[in-house]
Structures are given as C-alpha cells and as structure tokens.
Sequence to fold (413 residues):
Amino acid sequence: MHNNSKTVVLFMFAFLFFMFLTGAAFAQSGLLPAKFNAEIRARSEASGRDFDNSTGLNTYTLLRTRFGALILPLEDVQIFMQFQDSQVFGTKPKALSGASNIDLHQAYFEIANIWNKSIFLKIGRQELTYGNERLIGSEGFGNVGRALEGIKLTFGKNRNIDIFTMLISESTPPGTMPGTPNADFNFLGFYYKHRRNLLHVVDGYLFFESNLEETSGGENELKRVTIGTYDKGKIGRHIDFETELAYQFGKRRGRSVSAFMLTGSLGYHFGGGRKPHLSIGLDYLSGTTSADADYKAFDTLYATNHKFYGFMDYFLKLPIDSQSRGLQDAMLKLKIPLGRKVRFDAHYHNFRMVRGERRSLGNEFDFVLSYVYNVVASFQVAMTFFVPDDPMLATSTAGDIGFWSYTTFLVKF
Fold:
C-alpha cells in the first residue's frame, strides 16, 4: 500500500475510534447530540451468466461494511460522515495486506430552516435518490453504491423543490497552467415533488449534463437535457399504478439528441396486508441505429437499474447493454407474503430491442425469498434464469440458459 493510502486509512480508523469514545461520553452527558449507524452485508453469489453450462458456476462472496456518524452541533445543523469498505472474500491473501478498499462513501453538512423558512442546504458527497430511482438512485444493491459530490438546495417540505449541481468528474486538476482546456463534467438538476395526498405522488424534473471534454472532431462530449414526469398512486383499496415519461434532447459528440422513455405499471392487491400483490408493466426506451441522423438512444443517467430490468443485471448500463438499440421490457410481478416475516417474490421479463432486425433478447425469471429475523437482521435467497435469443449469444457458442443465484445476510442499525 502506498504511504498516502496508509495515511488515509489510519486517519479513518482514528476518526472512528475518536467518534466512538467521544460520542459515547458526550451522549451520556448530553453535551454532544450524536447518532451512529452501521451495516454489514455479506452476499454469496453463484454466476452462470455466460450461457455456457460447460464452464461451471463462478462462485464468490461480496462483503460491504458501512459505518456512519451523524453529529448535531446545533438544532438546525448536522454533519454526516459514512465510511465504507467493499471487498470480495479471498482477494486479500494476507490478513494484514492492507485496507485500500476503505473509502469515504458520504461526507456532507446540512443546514435546515434557513432564515426560519423551509429551506435546506446540503453540501458534500451525498447519495441522491429521486422518484423510483429510474434516473437517479443510490444503486444500493451494488457492493459499492453511488454517491455524488456537490450542492443541493431544498425549498419546502410536502411540496418541495430540489435544485442541485454535482461534479461528476474534474478533468483539469487544480493548479494547472492557464489556458488548459476545461473538460469538467457537471450534472445539474431541478426536481419538484408534489404530494397531492398520502395516496398520490406527482413529480416533475429537469436535468442537464455538461461534459466539456472535446472529441476528436472538436465537439463537446455531451450537452444534454432530460425532462420528465413521475406519477404514482392508488385507486381505491386494491388498485395501484406507476408511470414515468421522460424526453432527452441536446448534443452528444456533435450529434443531435432526441430520445424518450415511457414506463407504466398497474397492480392489484388481493385484500389485507398479508394478501398477494400482482402487477403488470411495460418499459419502453428508445434506441438508435447508424442510419439515424439524430442520436435516439435513451440514457438512464444515474439510475438503480437492478430494480427494474431483471435481477441478472444484463441491462445494468443503458444504453450500452442494449447496443444503443433501445429496450422494451414487458413484465409480470407477484408478491406473496408467507407470514409476518417471510415474503416470496416472482418476476417475469420479456426483453426486446426496439431497433434493428433481430430484436428479441429473451425471457428472464426471478425468484426471491426474503426473511426478516428481527429489526436489525435479515436475509434473502434468490434464483434467476435467463432464456436467451440470438442477440444475447454474441459471446457464447453454447446457447444454454443463463443462471445466477445469491444469498444475502444483512445486519443494519
């Protein structure tokens, strides 16, 4: 491990130890309001995603550890720091070989009720989640997760407006010579949350991406606007719905952008709290081909796509994973409570590309059993299968059914 990495790791452990000692002491005396949270998640996986049964299953175990400290020095001021270690069992052959996977996942301060109004300011590295996370989410299922760095202003409470600016990448290091081209990648957003009542949510948003890096043709990499609406609610006691519509326009590598996303689902709840829930849905993301003058592939930005496009994660990065040809996902989902602490989920997806000659991608079947042991401990067991069509077999000659399973143990408080 490099000396700088050692210094950072030692500082992190020293800070955590200091916070533990001082937090415990001051919390008892009432001088320092502080709260702590922690999470340890182990997930063992068996992957046969290559559509070739002769290669056998690739087995491994992922471990994610998080520790957070929320400090409340004043009534309307809070500071939050969260450290994270993400690793794979067995990748460190020696127990004392290093801790380079430890990172600062979140670090921000927030000032509330500015000027005695419902105005909130948050600055630093932070998780962003909006709507159902189809476009901006924390990617919590991943072993690392996602956090962005920037500033967010919130106005209001039940009906509130978020305005944020996040720096995705700093291509020009500070202190370089004057005249160096600016190649920063900035992400700006405006998000309006409208809670009509406890059963109905209507959101509207506008996002702007500006990647000033120049391509070989002298054009900027990206200047794109995403505008859309998100609507979720219930009709009576048994019916629920969810829709989202978004449109993208601007420039990508000198090419005009014109793309859209349309999603919708309709669900039915069979009675009380422990009754099954069945829903049908369709996601449609536009695609493009080399013959198009405009770039028409919809980009899902910073989404939590694991939640939507099959648990096997063949379409985790869109539009890359659909070859920019768009994606149509027709789905059927069933939730069955098996008791107060146990639930069974079954999902079916039919995937198709929306452009090109051979469009059918295949069918996926996901089965998940969840058990909540108590308020801090839970686990999940999942088995997933993918029956592929030709476009999914570009890197496989066997054409077998894809398989993936996992078992997750989680302790969180």
